[in-house]
Amino acid sequence: MRSLRNRKRLTSLSLTLAALCLAATATSGAYAADAEPTAAAGTYVALGDSYAVGPGTRVYDNPDDPCRRGPLTYPRLWAQQHPSYAFVEASCSGATTAELTSQQVPQLTADATLVTVQVGGNDVGFVEVLKNCILTIDDKDCVAGVEAAKAAATGNLPSALASTYASVRAKAPNAKVVVVGYPRLYTIGGSCGILGLSDTERTALNSAADTLDSVLAEQATKAGFTFLDPRAAFDPHTICSRGETWVTSLEWSKINESYHPNQAGHRDGYLPLLTALAG
């Protein structure tokens, strides 16, 4: 009898322990089922013109796409290094401030935490200025074109930038916004010698970059944004420098690749500067 009672007690104890284990397992499963998925660390939205996409890198998602986006640009590289961020690439080659405002800014969302904006060169006709300097024989024609672009940069561009920056802030009220500047193109008295443009023309083009960056920096400060100035980093790597070149020179067969940051310019120039500002 005693043996039978002991077996019953052991059976009852086993059933109780089993029930407790099942309850614990069920509770653990319930917590796992109810756990929220890991949220993105933030959202990065890239806005800009050809300097923010693929021209100069020679690698494109789709060579026939007029936006000419590619995987080796500083926004893409930053996004690759921060996989916990959602990434939106709105930049498109040829964009002006007006086009950026109407076509790219609507892609911003209120949860954006980082925004880069690189625009302004097309507003002042910088591409046409470059073509003019390349095609004209007299230095004076090149210099006159540069001065006209600089006048546009100081006269019309500030209000256009202010409007664009205001639209960015309205759509992304909590984002860190980095306004990205443009590098100088040439080392004066460098290794190019007498080939190509004269030093007078090269100096004029560098002054256009300086004027444009000054306007961008001023408007960025007024908007409460951060300005990324690439000039000091790029200067040892400009055209005619004796170091590794970070910008493409003139290519008659591929005009649209000319005078843009190349793969090294994005990877070793812009990317570290952006990382220093945005993390």
Describe this structure in words.
The structure is a single chain. Strand 4, helix 7 and strand 5 form a beta-alpha-beta unit. It contains nine helices and five strands. 49% of the residues lie in helices and 9% in strands. The chain has helices at residues 2-34, 74-81, 97-104, 126-135, 139-155, 157-171, 199-223, 231-234, 263-278, and strands spanning 42-48, 85-89, 114-118, 176-180, 226-228. Helix 4 (126-135) packs antiparallel against helix 5 (139-155), helix 5 packs parallel to helix 7 and helix 6 packs across helix 7. It has 279 residues and is of the alpha/beta class. A five-stranded parallel beta sheet has the order 2-1-3-4-5, with helices on both faces.
> How would you spell out the order of helices and strands?
HEHEHEHHHEHEHH
Low-confidence segments: 1-37
The major pleated sheet works out as: 5 strands, parallel
Integer-rounded radius of gyration: 28 Å
Helix content: 40-55%
Give the strand line-up of the largest sheet: 2-1-3-4-5
- Enumerate how many helices there are, as a single number: 9
The separation of the N and C termini measures 76 Å
Taken from the alpha-carbon principal axes, the silhouette is globular
How large is the share of residues in beta strands? 5-15%
| Estimated structural class | alpha/beta
Question: Please, what is the average pLDDT?
Answer: 87
